[in-house]
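User: I'm putting together a small comparison set for a docking exercise, and I want a reference complex before I start. The sequence is below, and the ligand is calcium ion. Could you produce the 3D structure with the ligand included, as structure tokens?
Assistant: Of course. I'll restate your input first, then give the structure tokens for the complex.
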Amino acid sequence: MQSTILIVEDEPAIAELLAINLGFAGYRIIQALDAEEAMGLIGGELPDLILLDWMLPGMSGARLAERLRAENRTREIPIIMLTARADESDKVQGLESGADDYITKPFSPKELMARIKAVLRRRAPQLTDDVIALSGLRLDPATHRLWGSTADGEVPLDLGPTEFRLLHFFMTHPERVYSRSQLLNQVWGDHVYVEERTVDVHIRRLRKALESTGQDQLIETVRGSGYRFAAR
Ligand code: CA
């Protein structure tokens, strides 16, 4: 799944450099020149990660990070702060304001990519292309393939695109219980208006797809709460 990165940077040369490099790396880019414009964009669509310049005209990057962390809807967005300051105290302040990581300008595109991947891996592993193997299932996000293990070895399993994303999310967040509305936000995206029972329909399809190898048992219903993927 293509991840969307919001670049908030008032210096056009740096913004362009970032957009070009991230575009080449396969990310979808949206851009804002200041915090106010960024909030407008975020209001319309939640990005998967924000590259946030510290020194912005008007509201600072650190202040914007604080505001995003204070709201339920935006609290979980990974943020990497960009800054010209190399000062240790600023770094601490940046991380305290809610940033996940910190990059000092000038930075190499290679370092930037590595930091983005590391933050996504930690904060949003369902957005990375890492192969994941758990509880007898092996899922490859890059090729959209899934295998289930049986006594005779692995067999390929067929999943629809929504069931694939759902299972990818579950496998990267095992043992935790998610409500239907949480799953809708995480797997369908926010601002997508679908009914909660849609989740049940796709859970049913997912279980059916895993039935032949017996891994349908891993998708547990937690009465009154939602669903959980069991790590066994
Ligand atoms: Ca700036």
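The mean pLDDT is 91. The radius of gyration is 20 Å.
User: Thanks, that's exactly what I needed.
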